[in-house]
Amino acid sequence: MNRRELLSLISLVPLARRAWAAQDAFATDSTEAVFERLMSYAVNHHWVSLPIGELMGKIGMELRGTPYVAGTLEKDGPEACRIDLTGLDCVTFFEDVMCIARILKKGSKAYTDLVNEITFTRYRDGKLDGYLSRLHYTAEWISNNVSKGVVRDVTSDMGGVPLKINVSFMSKNPKFYPSLVNNPDLVNEIAFIERLINNTPRIYIPKASIAKAEPMMQTGDIIAVATLKAGLDYAHTGMIYRDEHGEARLLHASTVQQKVVLDKRVSEYVGSVASHTGITVVRPLSVG
Questions:
Q1: Calpha distance 20→84 (Å, rounded)
Q2: Helix (H) or strand (E) holding 248
Q3: Taking the complete model, does pTM exceed 0.85, yes or no?
Q4: Cα–Cα distance measured from residue 143 to residue 41, given in angstroms and rounded to the nearest whole number
Q5: Which of these, 70, 114, 118, 176, is most buried using a 10 Å CB contact count?
Q6: pLDDT, tens digit, 9 for 90 and up, residues 118-160
Q7: Right CATH for 3-284 from 3.40.50.720, 1.10.3670.10, 3.40.50.150, 3.30.420.40
Q8: pLDDT tens across 12-57, in order?
Q9: Cβ(232)–Cβ(176) under 8 Å?
Q10: 168 burial class (0-12, 13-18, 19+ CB within 10 angstroms)?
């Protein structure tokens, strides 16, 4: 059996049933192999005809068990559109899932199409132009991708209220970012970007109001969890997945469980952490 035949056979088995444990034969798969399997599985199961949010839910559920790996985008060397489907953090999880769904809806199946799509959503105005062009803060990712027609901020439709943010974590903690350590002149420019972010109006649903808003949430909605932590806008991100009981649960790369999981209801999840203050909700827009 050659590699293509093997991959075709593997694609018929749900990825969610193949845990990414160390003893699993697929634990050392490359990102391209994971991508190829996802593409095959989506096509074989006719997911492409689904609304984009439902498609994101299917893809996200197939990635359950993928290890949580932080810092995959913060590497030495020139800025590049880095993708790692074998280890995800909370941002790369929803970003990769959304972009895979977007290229499927566009009729694309090549890995280079995924790279182009993630470049478009990850970088300011869709252009990769060095480290500063990346949308480092979730607040700016949201506003820039609203402007690009990728998502719609539906927080106000769910009773959202103004959110005051004061981001400064990157400029005050450059030691955590290799590009800032190696290029200290960038710190002042990051601080300038932070000031621009702080001057843009934001909306969120306060923690106490999330349960009331849950009936309006849809599978595939992207959730950004606002925080009290100094210098940050949002502490975590994930997606809504409506389970068989209709509950709006959080599908995310969990730092606690150290893998992608389908967690409790989003209101319960946010309510369980004292520093979480509420959520912003953005909805993926149709493609094509």
A1: 14
A2: strand 248-254
A3: yes
A4: 32
A5: 114
A6: 999 999 999 999 999 999 999 999 999 999 999 999 999 999 9
A7: 1.10.3670.10
A8: 344 433 333 332 333 446 999 999 999 999 999 999 999 999 999 9
A9: no
A10: middle
Q: How far, in whole angstroms, is CA 163 from its chain's centroid?
A: 21
Residues 10, 23: Cα–Cα separation, whole Å: 17
Query: How far apart (Å, rounded) are the C-alpha atoms in residues 275 and 192?
Result: 26
DSSP for 146-204, please give it. HHTTSEEE-TGGGT-EEE-----HHHH-GGG-HHHHH-TTHHHHHHHHHHHHHTS-EEE
Q: Which residue has the tokens 């450059």?
A: 174
Q: Domain ranges for the chain, please list them.
A: 3-284
Q: What is the DSSP string of 2-26?
A: -HHHHHHHHTTS-GGGS---TTSTT
Half-sphere exposure of 279 (CA within 13 A, CB side): 31
All residues at 6 or more sequence positions from 179 whose CB lies less than 8 Å from its CB, including other chains:
74, 76, 79, 131, 186
**CA distance linking residue 251 with residue 239, whole number of Å:** 5
Residue count of the chain: 288
Give the torsion sign (CA, 237, 239, 242, 243): negative
